Amino acid sequence: MPISTEPVFCGFWPHATAEVAGGHAVLPEVAEPDEIRSTGRPNPVVTTVVPADLLLDGLTDERLLREVDLHRDDSDERSIGDLVARQIEQADTVLLIGELDDEWDTEQLRVLLRRLAPWAGHPRRGDQLTAGLGRAEPVDAVIRGLRGHAVGVHEPLPSHGVSACVFRARRPFHPGRLHDALDEVTEGVLRSRGHFWLASRPDLVMTWESAGTLSIGPHSGWLADLPGEHWDDVDVERRLAADLDWDPYYGDRHHQLSFTGIDIDPVRLHRALAGCLLTDAELSRGEQHWRRLPDPFRKAYPASAVTEV
């Protein structure tokens, strides 16, 4: 199937998208780029257009799309912040248009966009937007780590006030301590995403996503629990990533969480998350003890909600 190099534009703000799209195709304002990639049609180069004066307000907007009558259907639980973040993350290129009064503030937004979508191109206004090829297959930002892709960049030293960090660990989170630390961990964070596991549910890959509000839920099982004869049914990238990073005790279980924000403290954030991991004493009691730990998350993710591995 031929791959299209014709640009397709998207963005939550139609006036900004129309300003640069010209005669090219424009996705609906509530569309996510991966939706068009999932149709099986030739893969376009998707450019998400972001107006400088509206970016921060959009990322931090906790209103549900249904509150502004932009939801797709009754099952659409996305917030405006979720949508804006996903349009940026799923783009082949991200185009910032307009400038703030202070050039330093405008550059801060450029750095922020590069931290939010390090795998995308970040052209300046007037640059060629049709170079290269669109991504052939969607890879959801929250599960990139399961397939061996980076969930974000680790740039803890601030650039124009923007910091980004990635938390990785093997031992599971204590469900109670993690629940108690959520406000501290997400304070000041503009975007976080990734996957993790809880000691009380060692069979589940849990996803983590925030843009204004935090959403946690089950994704699948771990390959460590999957009989060998079924491994061929698993996505090739995920199998390879698991093989390369396999641990003799934990198998493929691990955390990989990315955080991006302005004036956040990556050291404090890392310490807060590390404090949620099982201690040596808790770890030594074994899985049967872990499963009995009080779990404030349990009601939110019944086993029936888990998708396939």
Notes on the protein architecture:
The protein is an alpha/beta fold and 309 residues long. It folds into 2 domains: 7-116, no CATH class; 141-305, 2-Layer Sandwich (Hypothetical Protein Yjia, Chain: A,domain 2), CATH 3.30.1220. Helix content is 26%, strand content 22%. The protein has 10 helices and 10 strands. The chain has helices at 14-21, 33-37, 55-59, 80-89, 103-116, 175-186, 236-244, 266-274, 280-284, 287-290; strands spanning 7-10, 25-26, 45-51, 93-97, 155-159, 162-169, 189-198, 201-211, 213-221, 255-262. The strands form 2 sheets. The chain has a 6-stranded antiparallel sheet, with helices on both faces. A hairpin with a 2-residue loop joins strand 5 (155-159) and strand 6. The longest helix is centred in the middle third of the chain and has 14 residues, at 103-116. It is globular and about 60 Å long.
Query: What would CATH call the homologous superfamily of the largest domain?
Result: CobW-like, C-terminal domain
The largest pleated sheet is described as:
6 strands, antiparallel
CATH class of the largest domain: Alpha Beta
Name the strands of the widest sheet in spatial order: 5-6-10-7-8-9
Shape: globular
Secondary structure blueprint with pairings:
Blueprint (H helix, E strand, L loop, with lengths): L6 E4 L3 H8 L3 E2 L6 H5 L7 E7 L3 H5 L20 H10 L3 E5 L5 H14 L38 E5 L2 E8 L5 H12 L2 E10 L2 E11 L1 E9 L14 H9 L10 E8 L3 H9 L5 H5 L2 H4 L19
Parallel strand pairs: 1-2, 1-3, 3-4
Antiparallel strand pairs: 5-6, 6-10, 7-8, 7-10, 8-9
